[in-house]
Amino acid sequence: MPLACLTDFQAYARERLSKSTWDFIEEGADDNFTRDDNIAAFKRIRLRPRYLKNVAKVDTRTTIQGEEIAAPICIAPTGFHCLLWPDGEMSTARAAQAAGVCYITSMFATCALEDIAATAPRGLKWFQLYAHPDRQLNKQLLQRVESLGFRALVITVDVPKLGNRRQDIRNQLDLKMSLLLKDLHFPKERTSMPYFQMSPIDSSISWNDLSWLQSITRLPIILKGILTKEDAELAVKHNVNGIIVSNHGGRQLDDVPQGEHGVEEVLNIIKNEFHTSMTLTGCLSVAEINRDLIQFSRL
Amino acid sequence: MPLACLTDFQAYARERLSKSTWDFIEEGADDNFTRDDNIAAFKRIRLRPRYLKNVAKVDTRTTIQGEEIAAPICIAPTGFHCLLWPDGEMSTARAAQAAGVCYITSMFATCALEDIAATAPRGLKWFQLYAHPDRQLNKQLLQRVESLGFRALVITVDVPKLGNRRQDIRNQLDLKMSLLLKDLHFPKERTSMPYFQMSPIDSSISWNDLSWLQSITRLPIILKGILTKEDAELAVKHNVNGIIVSNHGGRQLDDVPQGEHGVEEVLNIIKNEFHTSMTLTGCLSVAEINRDLIQFSRL
Amino acid sequence: MPLACLTDFQAYARERLSKSTWDFIEEGADDNFTRDDNIAAFKRIRLRPRYLKNVAKVDTRTTIQGEEIAAPICIAPTGFHCLLWPDGEMSTARAAQAAGVCYITSMFATCALEDIAATAPRGLKWFQLYAHPDRQLNKQLLQRVESLGFRALVITVDVPKLGNRRQDIRNQLDLKMSLLLKDLHFPKERTSMPYFQMSPIDSSISWNDLSWLQSITRLPIILKGILTKEDAELAVKHNVNGIIVSNHGGRQLDDVPQGEHGVEEVLNIIKNEFHTSMTLTGCLSVAEINRDLIQFSRL
Amino acid sequence: MPLACLTDFQAYARERLSKSTWDFIEEGADDNFTRDDNIAAFKRIRLRPRYLKNVAKVDTRTTIQGEEIAAPICIAPTGFHCLLWPDGEMSTARAAQAAGVCYITSMFATCALEDIAATAPRGLKWFQLYAHPDRQLNKQLLQRVESLGFRALVITVDVPKLGNRRQDIRNQLDLKMSLLLKDLHFPKERTSMPYFQMSPIDSSISWNDLSWLQSITRLPIILKGILTKEDAELAVKHNVNGIIVSNHGGRQLDDVPQGEHGVEEVLNIIKNEFHTSMTLTGCLSVAEINRDLIQFSRL
């Protein structure tokens, strides 16, 4: 049977994955309220179609942080792709390159960044960072990222503590162990997961540390996980290059804003204040795959 | 068991049709949000009954584009009736004639237009067109339609691209093949489906092409699929004779307006602006059978 | 197991009744929207409890049309009680007398009015009428009702046509036949159902006929089935003695107002306009058992 | 499988308890509307997370009625813990002491107050009272409570009549009998339940009796069950030391206010009027475990 939509791919994956891997991907944090709100928010979107327009040819190209993409779509950073497919993030990078969209590579990628960069040399790639308590390690990593041709740095701000995913607790999931198991397609021969070893995440990082981050990289800095007007205003004030409005697909703090209503005050800042002040060259609100509301504004 | 309502007919049909035919009829586009919204919109309708009125005799007659009908009801254009019943659209035409309502014959009818016209000579009939990229073919067809006594031309504007019906993809439905299969009641001896061969639909047609359409027919022109105030205003400006507010039963673009709230701004134009300007002689909002909100306004 | 609430009684009845009798009682008209709305409206009622009040003794007595009842509750008129219990409406009358509430006897009672009156001589009883096209028959019936001690006349206005109950159609229910079947506890020896034979109901009756009805009875007249502000105002104007706000338990026209929102404009008239004009001595909004919102206002 | 959340504990308990004990704990009054509203109200809570704050160290300490607790959480008074665990309320008291939160011991505790006090000597404990019609019994009990080191008196005001719990009626639950059954872990050797024998609850108690209650104890008095602005204002006027906004977990009167909307007018009084007048030293809105909305305001 042909796979006609995401739901079909979901069913296809569920049949083929172990329960603990499926749960790891499918589940949100705590009561799954935010995950479910995200899906419901998608369902509330309504389009007002205009007709009798010549649509024989359609062009969806745009630019993001100065680079052209074929459509206003980025692949959000998600980790552990080798749990699902033998060559993990390398497949994702090639798919993004083929579609002409931006691939934001997660710091928890299970392929080496060198391999990801080499397999899709023409595709636009950004790198996503969880700051490590050891500042020297952050600096070394970012130098490597820059030299491999990643064009922007996405700093995730919504994981001061890891989300409480109940099914992972019940399954006693151990990602490090899982990735060593033979049946999970992990490319053991590669010296990967150096970044995964970098845990724990620094929970002390604050707005004051942004100038230090800006001092150790030439890449534009995008903050991922902003959900409030106040934090969006602080992002403008601290001269970051963009923000990603996201609730982490409902996998971090549960019961947070979502959808067109929950985050409209942030989107208004993206549309109005950033636009008039022109501080940022690109401002973006992307979503976890299949989970969040996708909003996109460009300056 | 007597069939007491549409739901009973639905169950009756489902038992007797092949899965792919049932799915073709039942399914909307994409996530079925609009199809389901349509049904929910019907459920939200509330009447304010006034009592102690003499209702021993009730008269529901009205006129549409100058012709009298027994009730303010038209049968919306739907194709491929031969999938469901041996003499397909001829049955529908006779039923409409018996009920005294208008039958809008679809361009994707599976009976010859001559047969449809001949079987119900006294019934009011309109013809629905998907414009073809070859203008000459459109002209020839409309001349034939006029000579057969169809009294208005309904141009569907909401199919610049065919709706994405997932179940049809999963079923690998091939309508041309299906109609040749013996068990589908298709009248092979007739030279039907000439219009079905006319595909593809012209996706370049725009408001500027309306004057050309008006030049090749004497029939009043009704635009079907208008969903926004802006397009309704353009319809007034372009001197069309009516509009049909419809989301194609949720079978075209999903996530579009529906119901009394979703399209009220359009209905207000029908009620107010058209009424005062008197540009149109009849203005109508019909619905896909059992799917849409039925609204009817006459000037 | 003790029967702890109406739901328990419902389950108890369903087990013991034939399918067609259960359906006749349970079902509303058409899509059951109004029936279900009624139940939902009940669920929406919220009380604001005040505490630290001395409630050791509670008195719920009030008066209706000048008669005292133990609580502001009337048993709404429903027909065919013999379908459910051997002595039918006589049981109901005795229960109402024991509880000290008013029993509105339906014209479609399956016990003789004489028997109902005799079995509960001290209970307050009203009589409910569907007007018959033959005016003389109405007059004779009302004289009999008066002589039996019924204290008010309830005229049902919301049945110009009988509600379309699909399950009854599917079950090919024939009430006259059902009541003659042995297993339905019908008291064959009694010459009952004289009123049931009076069908059909007069669908030509209008506001202008009220003065005639007022001329043939000394009983106060209550209109049952008023759902709009306009009709409530007409009731004031025509000097009726009360109105019952009811949608017939959702068994007549479907998709009509219900609950505290749907009928609030009517209830406001009951509270305000009737109160100031003092035209009516009692004004009441009762409900079908277990179905409607119960509202009660007295002047 | 690890127990990851309250839902897991619920399933664990359901497997191990008799049906009548489970029902007694799980069920609300009447239709369970308020119980279910409470759960829905929890689900509606949305947080607005602010990020890039240093959260390496978090301190949730606060004070209540002058005593420090580790977090703004109290264990609400619930009775009959011996139905669930051999040493009943003694376990609860030790758990509260370990967590550093306040334990409000129910008058319907199934362990002797002396044992509860002795098993958790350092934990903050309050005592909850249902006033008995015999005033002398109330006085004796409160003297004992004070001498055992309970630091506040919580008077429940929302049980002038016991809630109508249908499942208990259907199960013919007899709590006194249940607690004597061997399989219910009841500590028969102890002379407990002296207060349970004190039933019935005084339904005549009113605001005027508060001064008498204040005269027989030195403990601060907290009223539990206030749901309206009017009663909150009366509480201020009568110089009580705090109120607990609660609908008794939906186990008393059904269909009452709940959640952030239902009780916001009361919470506004807690926040505004009490704050400015400074009459109360602490004002608290706690919830039944897993049922109510938890709101906490301190002055």
UniProtKB/TrEMBL annotation, chains A, B, C, D:
The gene is HAO2. Belongs to the FMN-dependent alpha-hydroxy acid dehydrogenase family. GO terms for molecular function: (S)-2-hydroxy-acid oxidase activity; FMN binding. It catalyses: 2-hydroxyoctanoate + O2 = 2-oxooctanoate + H2O2; a (2S)-2-hydroxycarboxylate + O2 = a 2-oxocarboxylate + H2O2. Its cofactor is FMN. Residues 1-299 form the FMN hydroxy acid dehydrogenase domain. Keywords: Flavoprotein, FMN, Oxidoreductase. The keyword Flavoprotein applies. GO terms for cellular component: peroxisomal matrix. CDD domains: alpha_hydroxyacid_oxid_FMN (cd02809). This is (S)-2-hydroxy-acid oxidase. InterPro entries: Aldolase_TIM, Alpha-hydoxy_acid_DH_FMN, FMN-dep_DH, FMN_HAD, FMN_hydac_DH_AS. Gene3D superfamilies: Aldolase class I. Its EC number is 1.1.3.15. One of its GO terms (biological process) is fatty acid alpha-oxidation. It comes from Suricata suricatta. It holds the Pfam family FMN_dh.
